[in-house]
From TrEMBL:
This is Pirin family protein. Residues 155-232 form the Quercetin 2,3-dioxygenase C-terminal cupin domain. The lineage of its organism: Bacteria, Pseudomonadati, Bacteroidota, Cytophagia, Cytophagales. Keywords: Iron, Metal-binding. Fe cation binds at H58, H60, H102, E104. GO terms for molecular function: metal ion binding. It holds the Pfam family Pirin. Residues 16-118 form the Pirin N-terminal domain. Belongs to the pirin family. Its cofactor is Fe cation. Binds 1 Fe cation per subunit.
Length: 239
């Protein structure tokens, strides 16, 4: 089954002048009991952070937090001693585990565009940890590029403590990629730009698809497109 959620159904939030966000799941002041998570994917925020601003230090625990920088850059600092600049095309994973606090700030004059995703971890009580990698995912064409995964069969990706994998794809017009899945898995797709046909369903910019009980997804671009695809376990026992 494919469930199409149009861009207009995203929750728009601009709580401060420097932040423009779209929440794909319940978050902060937005609560919908029917939209609290999709498998272990608990948060997906599409954020634009203006220059010389950002999130001050705040705490987290028992969550895998993944940040993809699509444009601009952010400086990450946390109470575990990590400090790094995450630039366009880079991916960061922070395991909050038993607890830490961090800040994310944009010290440049240019706006930063990021996707931030939170996953429920596959076990509690983990020690906080951090990983960052330049995956160069914004330049590769016509393939699903794995960025972050807890499935150890994949190499040269950022590791997370979740039985899930995040892919990125830059798909040229009239090209097709095929994603093979299983009925015990779910697939989440969010389109950054362009248009797709997914198993015959027309998907536009900032639309999302949540797929369950499928074996194969045929994804064709009707115009140049960029999208994120997340492979997720359907059952909490497999998170």
């Amino acid at each position: 089954m494919l469930k199409l959620i149009p861009a207009t159904d995203r929750h728009h939030a601009a709580p401060v002048q420097w932040l423009n966000s779209y929440f794909l799941f319940s978050f902060a002041d937005y609560y919908d009991p029917d939209n609290s998570q999709f498998g272990p994917l608990r948060v997906f925020n599409d954020d634009t952070i203006q220059g010389n601003s950002g999130f001050p230090q705040h705490p987290h625990s028992e969550m895998e937090i993944v940040t993809l920088v699509l444009d601009g850059e952010l400086v990450h600092t946390d109470t575990a001693g990590n400090k790094a600049t995450i630039k366009k095309g880079e991916v960061q994973r922070m395991t909050a585990g038993t607890g830490l606090a961090h800040s994310e700030t944009n010290g440049t004059d240019k706006a930063a565009h990021i996707y931030q995703l939170w996953f429920l971890p596959n076990q509690k009580g983990l020690s906080p940890s951090y990983e960052q990698k330049d995956v160069d995912f914004l330049d590769k064409k016509n393939e699903l590029v794995p960025l972050v995964s807890g499935q150890k069969v994949l190499e040269d990706v950022v590791y997370m403590n979740s039985n899930s994998t995040i892919y990125w794809c830059n798909l040229s017009a009239d090209k097709t990629v095929t994603f093979k899945t299983f009925p015990i898995r779910s697939t989440f797709i969010y389109v950054k730009e362009g248009n797709l046909y997914i198993n015959g369903v027309d998907i536009g910019p900032n639309d999302q698809v949540r797929s369950t009980d499928e074996n194969v997804l045929e994804i064709r671009a009707s115009k140049d497109a960029q999208f994120i695809l997340i492979d997720l376990p359907s059952s909490a026992a497999n998170y």
